[in-house]
């Protein structure tokens, strides 16, 4: 037998074993309990249109209402997905909006408009696998109009 096919077979066997072993390395997928009094919906005047956009384009990463897709159970993709959700929640979590002071809420509202206007959010790695999550020009206008109105309302308090 030639060495090339034999080495290739061993490489495949080792690779298959590594794939099986890494399935046992599972970071925690969490959806912490939500205190309804702390959510963005309870703290700001969120219209049904804005709530619908949040639900389809934002909440999976920026809230404790993540819908974990099947591929979030398969390493190493699960590590990537769980890491992104953890990072996103640490920056802004709609489920814990009430924990932010007024200045931070205003900054986060400004950031929402800036990032969606620049096409930075939702992430380009998210939209292909989540139908309908890509924001239209109307969605961006709706969210920016809303964030500007809420920032004005916050500053008047």
Can you put this structure into words, describing what you see?
The model has no long low-confidence stretch (mean pLDDT 91). The chain is elongated. Helix 6 packs antiparallel against helix 7. The protein is built from seven helices and no strands. It has 157 residues and is an all-alpha fold.
**Global mean pLDDT:** 91
Instruction: Kindly report how far apart the N and C termini lie.
Output: 80 Å
Gyration radius over CA: 21 Å
Tally of alpha and pi helices: 7
Q: Bin the helical content.
A: 55-70%
Q: Poorly predicted ranges (pLDDT <50, ≥5 residues)?
A: none
Number of strand segments: 0
Which shape, going by the Cα principal axes? Answer: elongated
Please provide the ordered H/E string of secondary-structure elements.
HHHHHHH
**What's the story with the biggest beta sheet?**
none
Estimated share of beta-strand residues: under 5%
Structural class: mainly alpha
Spell out the key features of this protein.
7 helices, single chain
Give a nutshell description of this structure:
Helix content is 57%, strand content 0%. With 157 residues, it is mostly helical.
Topology, please?
Elements: H1 3-22, H2 40-43, H3 48-57, H4 59-62, H5 77-91, H6 102-117, H7 137-156
Helix pairs in contact: 6-7
């Amino acid at each position: 037998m030639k060495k090339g096919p034999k080495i290739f077979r061993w490489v495949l066997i080792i690779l298959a074993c590594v794939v099986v072993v890494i399935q046992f390395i599972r970071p925690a997928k969490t959806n912490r309990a939500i205190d309804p009094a702390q959510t963005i919906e309870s703290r700001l005047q969120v219209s049904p249109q804005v709530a619908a956009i949040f639900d389809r384009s934002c909440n999976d990463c920026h809230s404790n209402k993540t819908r974990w897709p099947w591929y979030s159970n398969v390493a190493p993709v699960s590590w990537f997905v769980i890491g992104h959700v953890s990072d996103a929640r640490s920056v802004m979590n709609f489920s814990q909006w009430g924990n932010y002071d007024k200045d931070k809420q205003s900054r986060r509202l400004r950031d929402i408009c800036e990032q969606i206007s620049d096409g930075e959010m939702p992430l380009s790695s998210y939209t292909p696998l989540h139908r309908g999550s890509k924001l239209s020009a109307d969605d961006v206008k709706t969210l920016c109009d809303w964030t500007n109105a809420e920032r004005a309302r916050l500053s008047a308090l």
